[in-house]
Amino acid sequence: MTALTDLTLAAAKAKLTAKDISAKELTQAHLAAVAGARSLNAFTTETPDKALAMAEASDARLAKGEGGLLEGVPLAIKDLFCTRDVESTACSNILKGFKPRYESTVTQNLWDAGAVMLGKTSMDEFAMGSSNETACGGPVTNPWRRQGSNSALVPGGSSGGSATAVAARLALGATATDTGGSIRQPAAFTGTVGVKPTYGRCSRWGIVAFASSLDQAGPIARTVEDAALMLTAMAGHDPKDSTSLPLATPDFAAACGTSIKGLKIGVPREYRVDGMPDEIESLWRTGIAWAKDAGAEIVEVSLPLTKYALPTYYIIAPAEASSNLARYDGMRFGVRVDGDGLTGTYEDTRAAGFGPEVQRRILIGTYVLSAGYYDAYYLKAQKVRRKIRDDFDQAFTQVDALLTPTTPTAAFAAGEKSDDPLAMYLNDSFTVTANLAGLPGISIPAALDGDGLPLGLQVIAPALAEERMFAVASALEKAAAFDARPDVWWAG
Amino acid sequence: MSVTPDDVRRIARLARIAAPEARLDELAGELNAILTWIEQLDEVDVDGVAPMASSVEIALPMREDVVTDGNIRDDVLANAPRSEEGFFVVPKVVE
Questions:
Q1: Considering the domain boundaries, does residue B68 fall inside one?
Q2: Are the beta carbons of B37 and A437 separated by less than 8 Å?
């Protein structure tokens, strides 16, 4: 019999409904896996008592033939989501001990659908990073290693703990958030599926804010269908978020496996960047061939502003962050460090509470918004952002979806880029465009590189065309037949 | 445009982050590396382009002007670093 932790979310759901397994035993199996994988450092808080109580409640509902879309399914929750009475810190020292008295809308939606919470997962501090190395609780280790090597690799970031929990089979799925690539890049680095939906699909209420015009929640799971099931439960209109779209949520899982025959799939020529490893280039060609075999027509398109997306992002995101993070003043919640008077207390609290990357971004954001520089940086970036969106609008008059690699490289070694912010930022070259334009994107595991590390392909669709995105992604998933998994070296 | 240590001191003050004098040079170097890279945006012609603040082009929703929340004093204070008798305790603000 397959281990309970090896089931896909969809298969576990079927077994739960058929009463082949109980939510309690499924949860216990995952709690044991979580406890056995502490060396990966994927979780910041484990909530076994809560998990078992939720699982028992699920079993009671299942026994009566009731139950929601994710009834009895154990999930991991990124520490960016506020969860009632469970420490929620965004992996920052400034929020140490913070236990919200409320629940984020997305997690509430999951609990309403019957899901079970295993615990909170690690992330880069305030979601600022691409390697999970800026987490205040220390780095997360990627379950994958290069063949014949014991060196630690990063799981990507910022949702590195969530991606690791799913890849290491500690959870059937996990919530994540994506501001510049923080769902899709760690999914690519860990051989998992990561989805960033259209901006506004998921409520941002109760998610610790980083850059509000870019932040979106989404799932990480092991199959496209699993991710679609999770997103269906997570999404939906929420009056508490004024940017939440007042639209009904489609049944995303129903879109998986539908034909992509006749769809036009665009390949943006500007994503072929200098210095891109041959393996990424060849993976992309393979993906194009898979799409063709599935009946899609491939069209080369141009997104001329692509190279300007990252610098645009590194004005807009820090600007919004500097404003959002002004709330951490040591007065109403979080940690306070007493200093000289009120201003001194603010300054010492924030200097002690924020890590170096967060401070760097707040300083950049403050600078680009300050008098005399606002027009040259912030306003300029907002204008370039519109041109980037116009590029996509133009491309989507010719094609139905876009196919690109997810990242320019496979997972890299711990410490390799942590001293060079710019090298770290380049990780998001292929993902950040979808955030700026508000478009849905998905990363699927497509192949292993020469070192035996997973590589991801990305599908980007027009706004609100998630169903088409899921159809294309599941066609590619089927062709890729990716079934590799990391050796379980961490257990014990 | 190049950021000087004096600029860093000014920005850090605006951002309410204590920046020790000894670190100003280093921070200026880090910020300049990022800002120099960002300045490639100067190549983009944005004449006549309207700034884009959000990808959602819907009007902000209105709601009834009614109280939807309240009477949760203890919840609001639950995470305060310091509170007394139902109030936040903060450093002295008025001399």
A1: no
A2: no
**pLDDT (tens digit per residue) in B53-78:** 888 877 888 989 999 889 999 999 99
Q: Across the beta sheet with A401-405, what order do the strands follow?
A: A43-46, A116-121, A74-78, A173-178, A216-221, A193-196, A441-448, A454-460, A401-405, A264-268, A297-301
Residue B27 lies in a domain: yes
The question of whether A474 is a catalytic residue gets the answer no
Q: Does B89 touch chain A (CB under 8 A)?
A: no
Across chain A, which has 492 residues, the per-10-residue mean pLDDT values are 90 98 98 98 98 98 97 98 98 98 98 98 98 97 97 97 98 98 98 98 98 97 98 97 95 98 98 89 97 98 97 98 98 96 97 97 97 95 98 98 97 93 91 98 97 98 98 98 96 74
A285 touches chain B (CB under 8 A): no
Q: How many domains does chain B have?
A: 1
Please indicate whether, in this complex, the C-beta atoms of B75 and A101 are within 8 angstroms of each other: yes
At B13-54, the pLDDT tens digits run 999 999 999 999 999 999 999 999 999 999 999 999 999 988
CA distance B47 to chain A (A): 9
Torsional class of A76: left (φ above 0), alpha (ψ -120 to 50), beta (otherwise) = beta
* CATH number for A25: 3.90.1300.10
Place of tokens 């993906």: A287
Residues 45-84 of chain B with CB under 8 A from chain A are: 46, 49-56, 58, 60-61, 63, 72, 75-76, 78-82
Closest CB to B56 among A200, A314, A377: A200
Domain of residue A490: give its range: 1-492
- Among candidate residues A225, A206, A226, the one with its CA nearest the CA of residue A217: A206
Host domain of residue B23: 5-41
Q: How many domains does chain A have?
A: 1
Write the ipTM: 0.96
**CA separation for the pair A57, A62 (Å, rounded):** 9
